Amino acid sequence: METRCKMNSCDRKPSAPPSLAEWRAGAVGRLASIRSGPKLMSLLAQEPGIRERVAAHGAEWFPGERLSQHTSLGVGGPADIIRVHDAARLPELVAYLYGFGVPWRVLGGGSNLLVADAGLPDVLLQLARGEAMAFAGNRVVAPAAANLGTAVLECAKRNLGGMEGLIGVPGTVGGALRMNAGAYGIEMGDVVRAVTLCRGATRLIESVRMENAPFEYRHTSFSSQDVLISATLELPDCPYAVILERIKQCNRKRRASQPMWEKSAGCIFKNPPGRSTGKMIDELGLKGTRVGGAVVSERHANFIVNRYHATAADVLRLMDFIRERVLKSYGLELEEEVIVWKE
Q: pLDDT tens digits for 101-133?
């Protein structure tokens, strides 16, 4: 085993961290030493007393968690999760991971995520839920770990609207923020004014005004090494009864057009400019197409559902098939909206 810094070495001034690509390149070269049969473990999994060390940084250690239990699609192999209970201590926790050369990623609610069957050698950082939202006039501070639908309803109860279309979007506030989630003419970027985050590159907590971090279609400028902590929203006044009626309308549309009762990761592909991916897939007659346990939804063609105990490999093969058919028929290269994590 290579020599690594001890826990107290992280008290010294940290050196410049490597890039995420450099971390993962190094991790791939060491996978032979961290495999356990067909499973992958993070480098930290071998460290004695790791549970206590992680707890000393305000977090909790969950080794070998099957990500099929942490994603709405219900697929994915094992990974080690560190659940962060004190976001203010994220800089020291990130410094600790850097000190060991451990690659890491941020896990939110897992609602837009496809994870490889073999699992991941990366440690996954996940913010614990439970922190309350804060309200001051038309301004709201929503924790990144908060459920998005719950956040919409809590704002509605205080006669604050503007987020009704997001009520049925699964996942967390942070996940919706990172991908600029949108539905029924509303995008997360429409209401966000500032974001508090921990920069993985600098290990500092910052507050970023959104004019300095512009939103794009299903994309924001935040790095994958940025851990989003909270979002400051600015919402218009609106009577609760009006908001509630809009929410009901959105829910009726969603139930009529999406496979609400099946496991999925939402829309699999982004819409090309001026085109509807779901419509193109439908026109090709691909609804109901099956690969293994994965099926193109009959209700919405841009959804792949886990109907028959699908694997990640099933979903990926079905995605490739759809992509090839659309390219051949329409000359368009589909871009994934779902986030794919592979070894």
A: 889 999 999 999 999 999 999 999 999 998 999
Q: Binning pLDDT at 50, 70 and 90, where does residue 183 land? A: confident
Backbone angles phi, psi at 7, to 5 degrees: -55, -40
Annotation: CATH topology of 134-240: 3.30.465
Give the side-chain half-sphere CA count within 13 A for 164.
Answer: 26
**Domain coordinates in residue numbering, the chain:** 7-127, 134-240, 259-341
What CATH class does 259-341 carry?
alpha beta
Which single residue is written with the structure tokens 């826990």? 7
User: What is the rounded distance in angstroms from the CA atom of residue 281 to the CA atom of residue 314?
Assistant: 18
Q: Are 155 and 240 in contact (CB under 8 A)?
A: no
> Quick one: how far is CA 306 from the chain centroid?
19
Q: What is the mean pLDDT of the chain?
A: 87
| pLDDT on residue 87 | 95
> What's residue 232's pLDDT?
97
Is 263 within 8 Å of 295 (Cβ atoms)?
A: no
Least confident of 48-62, 199-213, 262-276: 199-213
Q: Packing angle between helix 148-157 and helix 240-257, nearest 10 degrees? A: 150
Cβ 40 vs Cβ 343: under 8 Å: yes
State the virtual CA torsion across 5, 10, 12, 13 in degrees, nearest 10.
110
Class of the CATH domain delimited by 7-127: alpha beta
- Is the CB of residue 232 less than 8 Å from the CB of residue 138? no
